[in-house]
Amino acid sequence: MDLSQYAELFLAESREHLSACNQLLLEWERHPAAPEPVGGIFRAVHTVKGMAATMGYARVADLAHRMENLLDHLRRGAAGRRAGDDVLQLLFRATDALEKAIQVSAAGREQDADVAGIVAELDRAVQRFAPDTAPRHAPPSPPAPEVPALALGPGRRVRVTLRPEAPLKGPRALIVLKRAAGLGAVSQVQPQPAALEADEFEGQFSFWLAGPAPADLVVATLAAAGDVEEVRVDDDAAPVARAETGAPLESGKARHIRVDLRRLDALMDQIGELVTARGRLNQLAAERRDPTIDDLAILISRLSADLQTEIIQARMTPVWQVFDRFPRLVRDLARDLGKPVAFRVEGKEIELDRAILDELGDPLVHLLRNAVDHGLETPADRRRAGKKPEGEIVLAAVRERASVAISIADDGRGIDRARILARAQAEGLLDAHVETLSDDQLLRVLARPGFSTAAAVTSVSGRGVGIDVAMTKIRALGGTIDIRTEVGKGTTFVLRLPVTLAIVRALIAAVGRERYALPLTYVAETVEFGVVPITTVEGREAMVLRDRVVPLVHLRQLLGVNGDQPPARRPVIVIEMGERRTGLIVDGMLGQQEIVVKGFDAPRGTLPVFSGATIMGDGVPALILDAGGLL
Amino acid sequence: MSHSVLVCDDAIFMRTMISDILAQAGFEVVGEAETGVQAVDKYKQLKPDLVTMDIVMPDMGGIDAVREITKFDPDAKILMCSAMGQQALVVEAIQAGAKDFVVKPFQPSRVLEAVQRVLG
Q1: Distance between CA atoms of A158 and A163, rounded to whole angstroms?
Q2: What is the rounded CA–CA span in Å between residue A412 and residue A391?
């Protein structure tokens, strides 16, 4: 049978089990005497073993089997046995090795799975346990009808040979005996039932069968017990029966289906096309002013909107699928750095589009690393500062209106703005007369590639690298990052992400002959150019909007549109991200509509102000403006 | 009429594979259970012709589930799904009332053979 169709399911489910392993190992580490985690880990590893064996990944199955052996000893150990730290660390390492082996095996490179080292370590650990917890043998024997030879009634001896390749011959023998017991009293089983059950025989056994059952019935009944090579009854002409293989069965239909993620992606693309076509139809309806077309356009709008909602819903995935590996990550890091950390995860059930969630892992890892490495002080420093020695990091997801906010908060030392400011000014990143750094300025300075590798900024050394990477990724997903920090209290990063990537509501603006789309998430308001006072701040044109200075960007200039004169009355679109605002001066606004976001490969030299492209209702492409790049 | 089957395994992967094998052979998979407790509940509710039962499951293992099911229906036809090295547990399951067993990794032909024997 073709196993490749199950490979993804195998991978996905194995990941869940590994994640459970890690969670349980952490729990076990915290409560070494608790009996629950070891049982759960055993089950998870056992399940992975069964799945891997089915997929034919022998190395994965072997490693899982060795882990299971060790866990079995621990599980059956005397009540209250505490797992030694060395054993726990071994299990952590083994879980990591298992994860790697699964990954390379599922990628078709099983030969690259190197499990020999960890397998040997596990076996050594098992041997340490062996003396006091010998492998448990079969449970109590069945009430085998061991009748003394003298009391035997009429009957005959039956000899059964199991197929040499039969797995678990002991249990198979038991099934044969049970079938025999349905024909008459069974006694004098040889070898002893206990030996049979423990598989300590060569596949041949015999017993005394009392009763009048004819030999051919005995043979037929027992041969049908499965994996039976031969049944001989007494001194008869040794009838031989071979078990039949399964008869062909009529085909039928399955009640359950599971959907490949790529199918969902393809479906999403198609819905995208449909939304584009719908836009075109709406435009046509508006031009024709034909009520029949209008009605149809409305109907199709509604139907496609429903379809879109459904398909987006099908793509939604709870954040725990990514978050669940973080407790282990934080724990390992905290251990390496000698900083005790209480790590909490909140809002695990919040859902995001699978495509976004898949990209979130790396940025979050960067930010969590930063929090443990740079955010938190050493226990000694914390004591001196009057804090409890254990640092706290909270990773939380919260659903906001059209976005999901994910925050990473530490209660560490916070970032010293004065030092960052001095450093930034020394490097010429900021004007000398800037006196304080706002949160936004701080973030921009920190996100400068290479900025904080400077030795002078010891309190945040290395921060820049991670933030730079995280920021690029989050921006590419159409999201934003904010920072809040207070010296002595801690630092919080907040990532805001759209709930889904593919379809967003956007404001369509005209500049010259082109149209541009601006996702509504970032649009704060629109005002008419010239109605509010214009001023100049630091050599840049700006407007004063309700006592706030908003810098202005002439999109005509920025995008290099020349030729015909701009209209006299022009709107300013105020975009907002965190505390930052910018006014974009455009030629006109063409309304709002849903757009399907398509990635595009920007040619070299393209202004970094586009996040993608879309196809408008009339089939003409338009670029999507990236609020982050314009601010 | 096709036989109805309840598939019990804590791994979706395994349930999918077993269900596929059985469905392709014309069986009707009427339910799936991922714990022993669910297996017992669903058996009582669905009264399937056949149950495939994993041994190691959370929240009541497969063997206890076999005991509970055969207590409810002594004629229940239960096929154990075991891994290599579980002979003691399979023995226990058979004593508890399971009719047959298959060993992972599953080969469809062996699964169907075992199913035929159990339904036989």
Answers
A1: 16
A2: 7
Q: Which of A214, A233, A252 is the last residue of a domain?
A: A233
Inter-chain residue contact B83 with A50, CB threshold 8 Å: yes
Residues A221, A290 within the same domain: no
What is the domain-level CATH number for residue A422? Answer: 3.30.565.10
CA dihedral A170, A173, A174, A175 (to 10 degrees): 130
pLDDT digits (tens, 9 = 90+) for A360-387: 888 898 889 889 988 899 999 999 999 9
Residue A144 lies in a domain: no
pLDDT value of residue A604: 72
In A130-260, alpha helices (H): 169-181, 193-197, 215-223
pTM for this entry: 0.52
Residue B100's domain comprises 4-119
Neighbour order of strands in the sheet with A490-498: A341-346, A391-399, A403-410, A490-498, A480-486
Say whether both A287 and A369 belong to one domain: no
Strand order in the sheet with A610-615: A588-596, A503-511, A514-519, A621-625, A610-615
Residue with the two structure tokens 């973030």: A443
Say if B26 is an interface residue toward chain A (CB within 8 Å). yes
The whole domain housing A266 covers 262-317
Least confident span in A440-454, A467-481, B36-50: A440-454
- Reported as half-sphere exposure (CB side, CA atoms, 13 A), residue A44 has a value of 23
What domain count does chain B have?
1
Residues in A closer than 8 angstroms to B84, CB to CB, are 53, 167-168
The angle formed by the CA atoms of residues A286, A511 and A610, to the nearest 5 degrees, is 105
Query: Residue B26's domain is classified under what CATH number?
Result: 3.40.50.2300
Whether chain A has a CB inside 8 Å of the CB on B14: the answer is: yes
Mutate to test the interface with A, among B87, B100, B104 (most CBs of A within 10 A): B87
Q: What does DSSP assign to residue A429?
A: S
CB contact under 8 Å between B87 and A50, yes or no, is no
Q: For chain B, report the end-to-end CA distance as a whole number of angstroms.
A: 15
Q: Does A505 touch chain B (CB under 8 A)?
A: no
Query: Are A195 and A69 members of one domain?
Result: no
What band does A140 get if pLDDT is binned at 50, 70 and 90?
very low
B 51-110 near A (Cβ less than 8 A): 54, 56-58, 82-88, 90-92, 94-95, 99-101, 103-109
When divided into structural domains, chain A yields a total of 5
The reply to whether A433 and A297 lie within a common domain is: no
Question: Do residue A192 and residue A274 come from a single domain?
Answer: no
Q: Are residues A392 and A465 in the same domain?
A: yes
The complex's ipTM? Answer: 0.86
Task: Give phi and psi for B60, each to the nearest 5.
Answer: 80, 115
Same domain flag for A543 and A483? no
Between residues A407 and B83, the one the model is more confident about: A407
Contact B115 A246 (CB under 8 A): yes
